[in-house]
Design a protein that fits this description.
Helix content: 10-25%
Shape: globular
Strand content: 35-45%
Number of strands: 8
Distance between the termini: 16 Å
Radius of gyration: 15 Å
Number of domains: 1
Number of helices: 3
Structural class: alpha+beta
CATH class: Alpha Beta
CATH architecture: Alpha-Beta Complex
Order of helices and strands: EEEEHEEHEHE
């Protein structure tokens, strides 16, 4: 199957009290944990897209979006039926404990949100598969580029 046009997805690493916010999407038999975020619309700036997605998915309008922390290419293997090609841009997002405590699932595609301690991240099926990097990330960590990563 030919590849689809590449799609840009922005996501936010929202840390609060050394815990990371993840959302669960997907079918009940195939849950996918990921950083909150979503697709960038034509003509939309990356930070604007992330602010919109955070507001829609978790009510994160009071968050401060910083500079990008990482970029990941998710390209389906040759011949994979999905033909997917995603470019993920991950931003550091600051949010105080008061606003973080008010986060709720605000999008019908978000089935659950949960705060994870760093040591819990290794056993979670995170998409794209960057759990190890997330568990080690700290403010000031240099920008990371992950080449072709794919998780079915």
């Amino acid at each position: 199957m030919p590849y689809r046009q590449p799609r840009i997805r922005v996501s936010g690493m929202v840390w609060c009290d050394d815990r990371l916010l993840l959302i669960r999407q997907g079918r009940p038999d195939s849950p996918r944990w990921m950083l909150p975020g979503g697709g960038v619309e034509a003509g939309e700036a990356l930070k604007t897209a992330l602010a919109r997605e955070l507001s829609e998915e978790v009510g994160g309008a009071e968050c401060r979006i910083r500079e990008p922390a990482a970029m990941i290419e998710s390209i389906a293997p040759d011949g994979h039926p999905s033909g997917r090609h995603l470019l993920h841009v991950v931003f550091q997002v600051d949010c105080d404990a008061e606003h973080a405590a008010a986060f709720r699932c605000g999008d019908r595609d978000v089935h659950e949100l949960r705060w994870y301690d760093r040591d819990e991240l290794h056993g979670i099926p995170i998409h794209p598969p960057i759990a190890s990097w997330l568990s080690q990330w700290r403010a000031g960590t240099p920008f990371a580029f992950f080449g072709r990563l794919w998780a079915p």
